[in-house]
Design a protein that fits this description.
The chain is an all-alpha fold. It is built from two helices and no strands.
Length: 55
């Protein structure tokens, strides 16, 4: 997998997590543990994308 394909894959996963986080946050009783896990994963993906971009 080339660099651009990897970045595109990470961006897609990052966007999917953002959607899931927003949906969970809108629920009447959001699961704070699930939100925390998703936010940590989203941050990890963002850091990996930055690392790949800077080489």
């Amino acid at each position: 997998m080339n660099l651009q394909s990897r970045l595109d894959s990470l961006k897609g996963r990052h966007a999917d997590l953002e959607t899931k986080i927003m949906a969970e946050d809108r629920r009447p009783s959001p699961d704070s543990a699930a939100l925390s896990r998703m936010k940590m994963e989203k941050l990890r993906l963002k850091e990996e994308m930055e690392r790949l971009k800077t080489g």
